[in-house]
Write a structure and sequence with these properties.
single chain; 160 residues; alpha/beta; Dihydrofolate Reductase, subunit A
């Protein structure tokens, strides 16, 4: 199973200046719970946005740079190469950024999307989810509270 996992605003905003534009602690906890023990596939900028590699995950970084050799990651040069390395993982995750999501959508079986119920200034966006290709199979709403500045929903889509 190949899963795209993301958090996006109402207009599919992902982030600005290589950073998120919101802070949702429960979403971070969910991301950790779902991805721990699995391969996570990302672009170079996403990898470099982490203070250090995320624990208990195998980081596959897609880049065009043939000389890129970061500590804590396996460097690949295509989505196909990343998926070949992750092929024995029962669920690998495509975690961004924007270009990697666009490439990864055609390979994915499932989308785990946290929809943040607000609009944001952004320079990176999540691709549209075509309703003729994907079914929304579950949705769980969370109201904003003292730790979460925005309402949000966990949405799970499966390929038709």
């Amino acid at each position: 199973m190949i899963t795209v996992i993301a958090a996006a605003g109402l207009k599919n905003e992902l982030g600005k200046d290589n950073d998120l534009v919101w802070h949702l602690p429960d979403d971070f906890k969910r991301f950790k719970k779902l991805t721990t023990g699995h391969h996570i596939i990302m672009g170079r900028k996403t990898f470099e946005s982490f203070p250090k590699p995320l624990p208990n995950r195998i980081h596959l970084v897609i880049t065009r740079n043939k000389n890129y050799q970061p500590e804590g990651a396996i460097v690949v040069h295509s989505m196909e190469e990343a998926l070949e390395i992750a092929k024995n993982d029962e669920q690998s995750f495509i975690i961004g950024g924007g270009e990697i999501y666009k490439i990864g959508m055609s390979f994915a079986d499932k989308i785990e999307l946290t929809k943040v119920n607000s609009e944001f200034e952004a320079d990176t966006f999540f691709p549209e989810i075509p309703s003729d290709e994907w079914d929304l199979v579950s949705e769980e709403f969370h109201e904003k509270d003292e730790k979460h500045q925005f309402d949000f929903s966990y949405q799970t889509f499966l390929r038709k």
